[in-house]
Structure formats: structure tokens, C-alpha cells
């Protein structure tokens, strides 16, 4: 689109659909969002998805859940969609945000036995598993592991360390030789959470949705944790009740939730909604990635008056 349309229909209910709905509404478009499922943000906690849906409607977005287009055509008047309930929607422009897939069609993957158009499967060292001799690595969206810029950079750092340790020129100096061999040995024996393995991809990936309210989460949702067999307990607190929220914004509205492993006493996941929720998620990422016991987290005292005090309230709710 070369200009802000007077009206816009967005197909999809994921992160891109939600963020574009907010952005174009702010720019002045009349926005309709058609979601095939029964909620937006299907990978987020249900309470967060509901808050975002409510926020979209408060912005004036025509949010229609459980609806999908069965026919689309464009004419001089714009885009016309027929929905599965026989109703029609008209708009100036249409934005399709129904998901992404790796763009691997034109990379020549077939020359090394890989399938063009499919994800390039890698192990935690970011080595492509289907190519012999271990010379091919992949990072970023093409792997299908994550689809965020920050996690792609993380994978690239791990891959760089692995490559530097495995593939090396023979150093001339004895001191350099010892350092090179030490790195190679460390990589060969590397386990999870070493600098040579992208362990965070499996359960410590932070995600931020620039919506209103903003949403940020990391780790496992309650449903994911239960599917993986954890003994799960959740605690939740209204973020707007802490003193720092009154400093951050008038009428601050938001929610914080921790998903706890009740046996291990650690944080499996965390979700925050509200203004600048993204600024709360890094502390949760550290707690998840390091499996910090909640009894120890209780000693990480939040400064007063900040929104981070919600951590204290959550831990108190957890019994600390």
C-alpha cells in the first residue's frame, strides 16, 4: 500500500494481524479484522488474548471471530469479500496476515537433498540435520524454530561460536593452538545452556505484541506446561494495583501472570499486559532461562515505585 486506505480488511488473528489493526486504526483507517478461530493471538494466554480483543474493539476495530472469507474480488470500488455466513464486507484494501512460512524456494536446497519451500531443520547447534558431514548451518525464520528477530540473532551468535570452534585454521603459535583446542573441546562436550547450544529456543523465547494493551510473554503458557506434564500452578495479579502503575500512567490497566512448576518451584512462563509490558518480560526471561527458584526470586527486591513491584505481588500470591 502506497497510502493509508480509508478502510482496511485484515484476514488473520495473530501477532501481525493485531499489530496492523492497531497501526492502521491509529493512522485513520476503518479496520475490520476477520479471524477464523474463536480468539486472537492463539499462542498467548487466553486472558491476554481477551484483553487485546477488548482493546481492539475499544479502538473501533470491527473484530469478527469465527469468520472467514469464501470469495474475494476487486473492482473500481475496492475489495469485496463474501464470508462463510453469507454476509459481505467491503473495504478499500485487503491485508492477508494468516501466517508465514520459510522462504526457501529459491535457495537451491534441492542440490543438497533438502526440500525447497520447507523449513530447514537444525539441531541445537544450528547444524542442518539432513546434510551429511556437518558443514551446513541455518539460523532465523527458515529453521521454523522461532520467528522473531531477537531469537534469530541469538541463534546466529550460537552458530557463530559453533562454527568458530569446529572449523579452524591450524594456529602457528603454541599459545594460540592451546586456546583453539580448548574451544573445540568445549564445543564437542557442550550440553544444554552452553554458549554452543541454542537451548532457549525450546522454552525461553520472549514475544512482544505492540497492541493496546501491549502484551509480552516468555516461556510456556499454562496449557503448554500441562501438555508437557508439569505440575502446574498459576498466580495472577492486576498490575494497575501496584504503586508504580500510578506513576507510569493514569488509569493503568494490565495483568501479570506466572506459570509455576509446583514441584521444582521455578517459573515456567510469564505473561504481562498493559502499557510498556515489554519492559517487564526480560526479568521473566532470566527467571525462565536460568530456572531460578521462586524462593530466590523473592530476594530480588523491585525498586519503589516501579511497575516491577508486580513481581513482589506475584511471588506473595505464590506463597513466598
Summarize this structure briefly.
The protein is of the alpha/beta class. The protein folds into 3 domains: 7-96, FAD/NAD(P)-binding domain (3-Layer(bba) Sandwich), CATH 3.50.50; 109-201, no CATH class; 204-317, Enolase-like, domain 1. It has helices spanning 15-27, 46-59, 149-166, 174-188, 222-227, 243-248, 281-289, 294-297, 310-317, and strands spanning 7-11, 30-35, 62-65, 69-75, 78-83, 88-91, 93-96, 207-209, 215-219, 232-238, 255-261, 266-273.
Helices and strands, with pairings:
Blueprint: E1 7-11, H1 15-27, E2 30-35, H2 46-59, E3 62-65, E4 69-75, E5 78-83, E6 88-91, E7 93-96, H3 149-166, H4 174-188, E8 207-209, E9 215-219, H5 222-227, E10 232-238, H6 243-248, E11 255-261, E12 266-273, H7 281-289, H8 294-297, H9 310-317
Parallel strand pairs: 1-2, 1-7, 2-3
Antiparallel strand pairs: 4-5, 5-6, 8-9, 9-12, 10-11, 11-12
Structure report:
- This protein has 320 residues and is of the alpha/beta class.
- The protein folds into three domains: 7-96, FAD/NAD(P)-binding domain; 109-201, no CATH class; 204-317, Enolase-like, domain 1, CATH 3.30.390.30.
- It is 29% helix and 21% strand.
- It has nine helices and twelve strands.
- The strands form three sheets. A five-stranded antiparallel sheet has the order 8-9-12-11-10, with helices on both faces.
- Strand 4 (69-75) and strand 5 (78-83) form a beta hairpin.
- Helix 3 (149-166) packs across helix 4 (174-188).
- The longest helix is centred in the middle third of the chain and has 18 residues, at 149-166.
- The protein is flat and about 70 Å long.
- It starts with 6 loop residues before the first strand and ends with a helix.
- The mean pLDDT is 94.
Amino acid at each position: 500500500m502506497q497510502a493509508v486506505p480509508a478502510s482496511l480488511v485484515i484476514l488473520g488473528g495473530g501477532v501481525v494481524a493485531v499489530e496492523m489493526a492497531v497501526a492502521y486504526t491509529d493512522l485513520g483507517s476503518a479496520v475490520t479484522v476477520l479471524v477464523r478461530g474463536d480468539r486472537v493471538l492463539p499462542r498467548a494466554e487466553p486472558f491476554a488474548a481477551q484483553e487485546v480483543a477488548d482493546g481492539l474493539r475499544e479502538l473501533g476495530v470491527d473484530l469478527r471471530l469465527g469468520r472467514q472469507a469464501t470469495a474475494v474480488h476487486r473492482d473500481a470500488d475496492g475489495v469485496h469479500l463474501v464470508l462463510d455466513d453469507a454476509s459481505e464486507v467491503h473495504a478499500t484494501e485487503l491485508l492477508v496476515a494468516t501466517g508465514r512460512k520459510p522462504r526457501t524456494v529459491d535457495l537451491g536446497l534441492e542440490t543438497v537433498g533438502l526440500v525447497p519451500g520447507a523449513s530447514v531443520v537444525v539441531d541445537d547447534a544450528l547444524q542442518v540435520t539432513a546434510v551429511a558431514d556437518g558443514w551446513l548451518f541455518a539460523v532465523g525464520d527458515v529453521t521454523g524454530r522461532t520467528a522473531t528477530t531477537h531469537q534469530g540473532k541469538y541463534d546466529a551468535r550460537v552458530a557463530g561460536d559453533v562454527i568458530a570452534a569446529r572449523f579452524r585454521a591450524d594456529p602457528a603459535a603454541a599459545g594460540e593452538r592451546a586456546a583453539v583446542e580448548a574451544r573445540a573441546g568445549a564445543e564437542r562436550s557442550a550440553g544444554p545452556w552452553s554458549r554452543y547450544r541454542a537451548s532457549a529456543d525450546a522454552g525461553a523465547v520472549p514475544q512482544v505484541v505492540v497492541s493496546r494493551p501491549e502484551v509480552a510473554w516468555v516461556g510456556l503458557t499454562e496449557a503448554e506446561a500441562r501438555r508437557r506434564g508439569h505440575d502446574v500452578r498459576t498466580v495472577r495479579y492486576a498490575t494497575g494495583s501496584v504503586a508504580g502503575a500510578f506513576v507510569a500512567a493514569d488509569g493503568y490497566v494490565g495483568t501479570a501472570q506466572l506459570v509455576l512448576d509446583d514441584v521444582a518451584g521455578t517459573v515456567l512462563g510469564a505473561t504481562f499486559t498493559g502499557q510498556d509490558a515489554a519492559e517487564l518480560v526480560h526479568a521473566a526471561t532470566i527467571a525462565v532461562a536460568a530456572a531460578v527458584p521462586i524462593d530466590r526470586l523473592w530476594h530480588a527486591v523491585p525498586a519503589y515505585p516501579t511497575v516491577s513491584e508486580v513481581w513482589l505481588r506475584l511471588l506473595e500470591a505464590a506463597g513466598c
